[in-house]
Amino acid sequence: MNCRSVGIIFAMLLLPSTLTFGQTWKSKIGFNDLVSEKGGSLGDGSGLNVMQAEAPDSAGNYMPDVTAAEFSGKTFTEGSGAFGANNHGTLVANNYYGNSSSMTGGISNITGYDANDYIFNWLNALSGNDLNSTPAFDIGNHSYVGNGLTTAQAEDILERFDFVINRDNTLMVVGANNGSTTATPQVLTPSYNAIAVGRSDGGHSQSLTSVYGAPRFATSIVVPSAGATSFSTPVVGSAAALLKQAGAGTDFVQNEVIRSTLFAGATKDEFASWDRTSTRPMDEVFGFGELNILNSYHIFEGGQFEGSTTDPTTNINDRGWDYGDFDGSKDLFYDFSISSGGNASLSAVLSWNIDIVDVDSSTAFEAERNLADLNLELFDSSGSFLGSLLDASNGTAYNNEHIFFEGLDGGDYTFRISGNSATDFGFSWHIHSVPEPSSAVLLGLGAFAMLVRRRRR
């Protein structure tokens, strides 16, 4: 497909492996359990302002079928001018904000864009000019990929994209390509500040990135049984919308926090080969794991706990989060305890944005990248503060750090955030004991009833 603004070939569309798929994913990612637990108090995305960019079909159509029953009562804005319905866009929209088919059917304010128009006119990519103004969206979905560019062209698009995410505090979700042997696309999958989504069956691009910073694995979270990556991506967008609505009025709405919460809540027991290293915070194929909105919602409910620059005097909850401004000089500490005789596992994720600075004060856009380097460590503090280091995540290629640790005995423990770079960050964690409490005790735990499932997290 020829881009309207430049004379290059830009392959935008994520071709679906099938156009029909069930919604067993709602059960698999914990949404049905969350609905049973929260009932009418669970939000539905009402009041959020979202966008959806689509590769146009052969007739130039990029909007979903706004007349479909799944979208009744919603207001659509044609951000790239009047066009008809795009079948691919309709299927994406079903999982994103469909009245009954998504998790956030209450979303009613949607702006659609032709992906070419969004990138080459709104972002003003490859023009050298500053970005054009767009509304500040809460959530954005991009179920398409771009290839056939030079490295410089791809990086210009990605810098502008990450600039907008940081500037507007938008949570953007982007798709990896379909096919386990396909190369990771040049655009938009390598974005640092977006969430790149794959499939739980591993049927998505798995190679290292070839543009935009150090080579790294890009797919950060996967979704089960949602068909192609095009339709997995809006499931994560819907989950992000659910969390952002829940956290309204608090620091939780920051995209760094929502990202870390989705990642920390992801499950691993679906993947026998899942692993991470101290310099690679996520698995090469499955990222931080499979989306689990029940876990992530419980992390939100755990509340905010501020890190201390000295040994904390109070423990954090088993589930919780923080948003802060790391100054690059003072380490932050978070203490927690495991009850005597207990055995626990934990998942903790630290996330921050790459900072793209426009250093040209004129009408040109001249990007300067600043990728902070933070570290996340877990210490056994029983007997003495920071007594022994148990695990560390201290890579330099990513803007996330992750500790997943199983088999913590009863005692005192500490997370430490360190580094030599100043940046805002989101930090989220959940800790659970094994074996779980008896069923009688679980009845009194409310939000923690999901522990009886004995899932490896």
What does this structure look like?
The chain is built from nine helices and 15 strands. The protein is α/β, with parallel strands linked by helices. The strands form three sheets. It has a seven-stranded parallel sheet with strand order 2-3-1-4-5-6-7. Helix 3 links the parallel strand 2 (75-78) and strand 3 (109-114). Helix 3 (87-97) packs parallel to helix 6 and helix 7 packs across helix 8. Mean pLDDT is 90; it is low at 1-13, 16-20 and 436-457.
Major sheet description = 7 strands, parallel
What's the count of strands? 15
| Shape, principal axes of CA atoms | globular
Q: What is the helix tally?
A: 9
Alpha carbon gyration radius: 21 Å
User: Which spans of ≥5 residues are poorly predicted at pLDDT below 50?
Assistant: 1-13, 16-20, 436-457
| Strand and helix order | HHEEHEHEHEEEHHHEEEEEEEEH
Ends apart, CA distance between termini: 42 Å
The amount of helix comes to 10-25%
Arithmetic mean pLDDT: 90
Question: Per DSSP, what share of the residues sits in E-state strands of 2 or more residues?
Answer: 15-25%
Structural class: alpha/beta
Order the strands across the largest sheet as they lie in space.
2-3-1-4-5-6-7
Describe the secondary-structure layout.
Blueprint (H helix, E strand, L loop, with lengths): L24 H4 L2 H8 L10 E6 L20 E4 L8 H11 L11 E6 H8 L16 E4 L8 H18 L2 E5 L19 E5 L21 E3 L5 H18 L8 H11 L27 H10 L16 E8 L5 E20 L3 E4 L8 E4 L3 E7 L7 E6 L6 E20 L3 E11 L5 H5 L14
Parallel strand pairs: 1-3, 1-4, 2-3, 4-5, 5-6, 6-7
Antiparallel strand pairs: 8-15, 9-14, 9-15, 10-11, 12-13, 12-14
